[in-house]
Amino acid sequence: MILLDFDKGNGLVPAIVQDYKSGKVYMLAYINQASWKKTLETGEAHYWSRSRQEIWHKGDSSGHVQKIKEIYVDCDNDTVLFKIEQLGGAACHTGYETCFYRKVGPEGEVAIVGKKIFDPEKVYKK
Amino acid sequence: MILLDFDKGNGLVPAIVQDYKSGKVYMLAYINQASWKKTLETGEAHYWSRSRQEIWHKGDSSGHVQKIKEIYVDCDNDTVLFKIEQLGGAACHTGYETCFYRKVGPEGEVAIVGKKIFDPEKVYKK
C-alpha cells in the first residue's frame, strides 16, 4: 500500500478533486490517514474538515456524495488526485458546480463565470 | 484585487496546475504573496519552494516554463487553479508529463501509467 507523506502537511495531504468525465477541477480538500483509509475502503471521498476538526464524508448532509473512479498520487507522495463522479452535479457548498467558479483577471480582479446548480438554502437545511 | 487567504496555510496557498487544453492535472505547488504577484505580473507561474525556501520560477533550470492562460480562485479564497501551457511538454521533474503518473489500485498499490517525456539527467545538468 502506498505510503503517503502526511508529515509535510502536519498530518494532512491535499486531495485535488476532478470530474472523471469532463476533467473539470471541482475542489481541493485535505485527507488524513483515517480519511484516506475510509476513501479506499468505501469508494466514496472522505476528507478531514479543518474547520470542524473531524472526518468529513462529503455528501453526508447534502446527499452530494463523490464516487471515486480513479486515484492518482504525485511524484513525492504528498498530494493525491481523486477522479470522481459528483452526485447532485455540484461539488461546491455555494451551489456552483465547481468551487473554482470565479476567474481572476489580469489585474487580480475576479468575475463569476461558473454555473449555479442548486440553492444552498434548500440543500443545507438545519 | 482578490485577497487570497494566506493565513490558513502559514503564508502559503496551494495552486493546482492544469493543462489549459487537455484538462490534465499536472501538479500541485504552493504560492506565497510574492510569487502570486510575480505570476500575475509576468504571466508565468512562480511558486514558493518549500524545500529550498525561495521563490521558484518554474522552468528556470529546465526551460519548462508554465505560461498562464487562466486563473481561478475557489469559494473561500484559499486555493487557486492555474490553467497553463506547459513548455517542453512535461511538468514533472521526473520527466513524466504530469506529477500524477502513478495510479492507486483498490488495495492502495500503485502502478505507473504516465508518459515519460524527457530524461531528467539530460535536462537538469549540474
Describe this structure in words.
2 copies of one chain form a homodimer. By secondary structure, chain A is mainly beta. Chain A has helices at 33-42, 120-123; strands spanning 13-19, 25-31, 46-49, 54-57, 66-73, 80-86, 102-104, 110-112. Chain A starts with 12 loop residues before the first strand and ends with a helix. The mean pLDDT of chain A is 95. Chain A binds chain B through residues 1-2, 8, 14, 16, 18, 22-25, 27-28, 40, 50, 70-76, 79-81, 92-94, 96, 99-104, 106-110, and chain B through 1-2, 8, 14, 16, 18, 22-25, 27-28, 40, 50, 70-76, 79-81, 92-94, 96, 99-104, 106-110. Strand 5 of chain A pairs antiparallel with strand 7 of chain B.
What is this structure, in a nutshell?
The structure is a homodimer of 126-residue chains. Helix content of chain A is 11%, strand content 34%.
- CATH class division of the domain at 13-92 in chain A: Alpha Beta
Number of strands of chain A: 8
Based on the coordinates given, report the CATH architecture of the domain at 13-92 in chain A.
Answer: Roll
Beta-strand residue fraction of chain A: 25-35%
Key descriptive features of the protein:
2 helices; 8 strands; 34% strand; 126 residues; Ubiquitin-like (UB roll); 11% helix; four-stranded mixed sheet; two-stranded antiparallel sheet
